[in-house]
Design goal:
344 residues, alpha+beta, Aminopeptidase, eleven-stranded mixed β-sheet, three-stranded antiparallel β-sheet, 37% helix
């Protein structure tokens, strides 16, 4: 198949999300997510459209990050668990990637990172690997529940017995509350939180546009756990969770996830994804397996476009957890506000 590769901007391309839907894209391929990233961190959209004559038959989404800390580079896509390149059948994948690399070199990129692409160059370019846990929603909800680990079902019953209630609150106020809970969780884990304006853009372009829901666990009138799910095509992604650890013994997360799965089951949705999990995070992997999930592995590929490329910038966070956990919360927020745009 002869192809032509052109740079596109989703917000300026007619029927973009319909095209992405037909190609099997996820929430991360949408124009909405593009706007979240562009407006939150001032990244430049460099989406590579693959054309057969005048028709878009494939897309490789890339954001250009220009950082004095981590260098100028392309990432497909920042702050996205995965973003598979949407290649049509019979396309010369290597030729498309060569076109992208040529553009990157001319633009001064140090590297390109692909998240989830089956890169034809092989494992030598793998920079990281993650597990992805998914539930098959095509089955009736009653059948899905039977696959939950016994301990999960017991914790769900415990939450119900403790009068935990789950609501959907798709409001700006809920976004602010989520951010507050998330900041406390990040401090506990020794990681700076993402800026508030990032979550505000998620509300503006995802939640308020009907592409997501905010699930809230309440004890009386107090919010004790929250989850943010994104939805597009036939896929649901539980993207973010945050909780008040003072109430962990009430097991609100278990009931929240149960009700979120129930909300999407028995409709047009085919999969419920728990997002990526680091392979060294055994506790979280076991928790996600407890929901009867299927497990896949995705690779991140980092392709150097010059001889010397800054790498290992995630160590900025990973190697300083003990210091971050001791910071006052206001200072940790400031670190997140400064650093996140450089990390991607």
């Amino acid at each position: 198949m002869n192809h032509e590769v052109k740079i596109l901007h989703p917000a300026k391309t007619e029927n973009w999300d319909n095209i992405i839907h037909e190609l099997g894209g996820s929430i991360f391929h949408t124009a909405n997510w593009c706007e979240v990233l562009s407006q939150s961190y001032n990244y430049k959209a460099r989406y590579f459209g693959i054309f057969d004559h005048d028709q878009i038959v494939g897309v490789v989404p890339v954001m250009e990050i220009d950082s004095f800390i981590t260098g100028k580079r392309g990432v497909s896509l920042p702050f996205s668990d995965y973003c598979f390149a949407l290649f049509p059948d019979r396309v010369d994948v290597q030729a498309v990637l060569s076109d992208i690399a040529d553009f990157g070199k001319k633009s001064g990129w140090k590297s390109i990172e692909f998240r989830g692409l089956n890169y034809p160059g092989g494992n030598e370019f793998v920079s990281d690997s993650y597990y992805v846990h998914q539930i098959d929603l095509k089955k009736p909800f009653e059948e899905v529940v039977k696959t939950f680990r016994r301990q999960n079902r017991m914790n769900i019953k415990k939450a119900v017995k403790n009068n935990i209630r789950i609501k959907i609150e798709n409001t700006r106020e809920a976004i602010t509350k989520f951010y507050q809970l998330n900041c406390k969780n990040k401090k506990k884990n020794g990681v700076p939180p993402a800026p508030l304006h990032f979550y505000q853009k998620i509300y503006e372009y995802v939640i308020s546009e009907g592409l997501g829901n905010i699930f809230v666990a309440k004890l009386a009138d107090k919010t004790i756990s929250m989850g943010m799910a994104f939805q597009f095509g036939d896929q649901v992604l539980l993207k973010y969770m945050a909780q008040d650890y003072q109430y962990h013994q009430y097991r609100p997360n278990n009931l929240l996830i149960h009700d979120a799965i129930k909300h999407y089951a028995g409709s047009t949705w085919k999969t419920f994804c728990f997002g990526r999990t680091g392979m060294d995070n055994e506790g979280l992997c076991q928790f996600k397996k407890g929901w009867g999930t299927n497990v896949d592995v995705i690779n991140y590929y980092n392709i150097s476009l010059e001889k010397k490329t800054k790498t290992g910038y995630m160590g900025i966070y990973k190697n300083n957890k003990k210091y971050f956990s001791k910071m006052p919360l206001w200072m940790l927020k400031m670190v997140g506000n400064i650093m996140y745009k450089h990390i991607g």
